[in-house]
Specification:
Blueprint (H helix, E strand, L loop, with lengths): L3 H14 L7 E7 L3 H13 L3 E7 L3 H8 L2 H4 L4 H9 L2 E6 L12 H23 L4 E6 L3 H6 L4 H11 L7 H19 L4 E6 L2 E6 L6 E3 L9 E4 L7 E5 L4 E3 L2 E3 L3 E5 L2 E6 L4 H8 L8 E7 L11 H4 L5 E7 L14 E7 L5 E4 L2 E5 L2 E2 L2
Parallel strand pairs: 1-2, 1-3, 3-4
Antiparallel strand pairs: 5-6, 5-17, 6-9, 7-8, 8-14, 9-12, 10-11, 12-13, 14-15, 15-16, 17-18, 18-19
């Protein structure tokens, strides 16, 4: 039986988020577990005259790659992948894990090898997106694994997820346009400002954003959405930050992360769990110790940590920092094979000021 909410989600993603049109080359990727949403997107793209292709994956294949592949196999890039990144007009990526911990015992160095090899693809994709040559969207299809991470039943998680997407609103697109209006007000307030100071438990961090562009996240590239973000000045970050929630990357979970910055770079890093993976990822390349993104969460419909950063970085009253690659359209210049978002919860005693003026206090946006 078709889930009507997945069908409505597909309508929004095709018509609002990416505006698929006749002749577009569209790639739809995700685990076969997300078949209902994959097929809903595929059908709608066909009806709009686009040329969609499905790249469905088998989740259990990835652990086999890291367990058995030699380095030259980890480093190999299929020519078809290069062609796709150079030519597609629209990309849909669906997060739909059946086991979110299946890579937790894999050697972190092997994942670093794979990431380094794929860096040119990531860089090419970001460059094309910044030029408006490709529209992209990352969303999620609820699974038992994601529900367990969020400590919910699948039914509860589905209600939570589709609620955060505003699917049940009489006119979801109109609601996302209201979000866009709120973001425009925030961005207008930030124009011409520079020094961002983030304070909270275990956190006293200063970043600079002069002449950088704050971008709104209104349901275009991510769904659900709800943040504004930019690329901080690469040489200016200083102080320390402690991340409230576990940070997931490459199938690994790292807890209790504390980072110390000087002159823009991480000079000290610790974690209470999986510190070795944290350090090896930071050593991936020169850009992995530099911030590529500062984001401010604005979706107050997402209230609890879920273990999926697509949702957690949007929590209203949080900020998130991404180590590694910048989004060129923000004015950021950092390049890296890494882009790792980490979330800092400021809803209990946290504060963000910009040039001394309060922007966020105890999780409440004041603008």
């Amino acid at each position: 039986m078709k889930d009507s909410r997945a069908e409505r989600l597909a309508d929004i993603l095709v018509d609002y988020s990416t505006e698929v049109k006749e002749g577009d080359l569209v790639m739809i990727s995700g685990s076969y577990v997300a078949e209902p949403l994959i097929l809903a997107l595929y059908e709608r793209c066909l009806k709009r005259g686009a040329h969609p292709t499905i790249r469905a994956s088998i989740p259990a294949a990835e652990p086999l790659l890291y367990r058995h592949a030699e380095d030259h196999q980890l480093e190999y890039i299929w020519p078809t992948d290069t062609w796709i990144y150079d030519h597609i007009d629209v990309s849909f990526s669906i997060i739909s894990d059946s086991n979110t911990r299946q890579l937790s015992k894999m050697d972190p160095a092997r994942q670093v090898t794979r990431s380094k090899a794929r860096e040119p693809l990531l860089e090419r994709f970001f460059d094309r997106a910044a030029k408006g040559e490709v529209r992209w969207n990352v969303t999620l299809f609820p699974t038992e694994a994601h529900a367990m991470d969020a400590e919910m039943s699948l039914a509860e998680y589905e209600d939570f997820f589709y609620g955060a997407c505003l699917i049940d609103a009489p006119d979801p697109v109109a609601e996302w346009k209201k979000t866009a209006e709120r973001h425009a007000q925030l961005i207008d307030w930030l124009k011409g400002r520079n020094e961002v100071h983030i304070s909270g438990e275990g956190t006293d961090l200063t970043l600079e954003v002069a002449d950088r562009i704050f971008l709104p996240a209104d349901g275009k590239e991510n769904f659900p959405d709800g943040e504004i973000f930019t690329g901080p000045i690469e040489t200016a970050t200083r102080g320390h930050v402690t991340f409230s929630f576990p940070a997931h990357y490459g199938g690994q979970s790292v807890e209790g992360i504390r980072l110390e910055f000087a002159d823009g770079k991480v000079v000290d890093a610790t974690a209470t769990k999986n510190e070795e993976f944290l350090i090896k990822t930071l050593d991936t390349d020169e850009g992995a110790r530099i911030l590529g993104e500062l984001g401010i969460g604005s979706n107050y419909g997402i209230t609890n940590y879920t273990g999926e950063v697509l949702l957690d970085e949007k929590i209203g009253g949080t900020v998130h920092l991404a180590l590694g690659a910048s989004y060129p359209e923000s004015g950021g210049t950092n390049k890296s094979a890494v882009h790792w978002d980490m979330v800092c919860d400021l809803r209990r005693g946290g504060r963000v000021t910009v040039d001394g003026d309060p922007l966020l206090e105890d999780g409440e946006l004041l603008v």
